[in-house]
Amino acid sequence: MELNTLCAFGKQFVRGISTTACACGKRNFRKFPIYNKRGTKAFKAKQAKNPHPDVPIHTYGVRSIGYKKGSAFMKIDELVPEIIVPDLTGFKLKPYVSYRAIDIVQPPLTPEELFGAVYVKKITEDFKKGKLGPDNQSLEPSAEERLTAEEAREKVSSIRSDIV
């Protein structure tokens, strides 16, 4: 602190220079948020009875299950979280998959592979047993072979809607 002294007409003026701002006992509490657990016991008691609008009540990300009407809290049953857990009694799969499990990469089926997986076995059996007609149609068709194109499309769309 440096003091400069001036004398004028018998009076002495002293000027002080300070590098810090004068706070005069006041603090800017907007810079220092005081949430639920911070502050004195008296402050917490005052906040519990009559909360100050500038000091928010911090919920730590938890959603409210109601609203405050005057001094009473109104609970809304629809806002209470309900955890729905399926009954897994008799469930045979284990809940854990090891990170050492081998990744299985399989390309999507082509139409030729799908035809081979579904129809080739039946066609070769019919050919060996001589159960093919003059236009190479099966004389004893299976349920899948009897379907028309429209029925097959409906069956596939119903399977897809069950999956989705």
Automatic annotation (TrEMBL):
<dbReference type="InterPro" id="IPR019189">
    <property type="entry name" value="Ribosomal_mL41"/>
</dbReference>
<protein>
    <recommendedName>
        <fullName>EOG090X0IZW</fullName>
    </recommendedName>
</protein>
<feature type="region of interest" description="Disordered">
    <location>
        <begin position="131"/>
        <end position="164"/>
    </location>
</feature>
<feature type="compositionally biased region" description="Basic and acidic residues">
    <location>
        <begin position="143"/>
        <end position="164"/>
    </location>
</feature>
<dbReference type="GO" id="GO:0003735">
    <property type="term" value="F:structural constituent of ribosome"/>
</dbReference>
<keyword id="KW-0496">Mitochondrion</keyword>
<dbReference type="Pfam" id="PF09809">
    <property type="entry name" value="MRP-L27"/>
</dbReference>
<keyword id="KW-0687">Ribonucleoprotein</keyword>
<dbReference type="GO" id="GO:0005762">
    <property type="term" value="C:mitochondrial large ribosomal subunit"/>
</dbReference>
<comment type="similarity">
    <text>Belongs to the mitochondrion-specific ribosomal protein mL41 family.</text>
</comment>
<keyword id="KW-0689">Ribosomal protein</keyword>
<dbReference type="GO" id="GO:0006412">
    <property type="term" value="P:translation"/>
</dbReference>
<keyword id="KW-0809">Transit peptide</keyword>
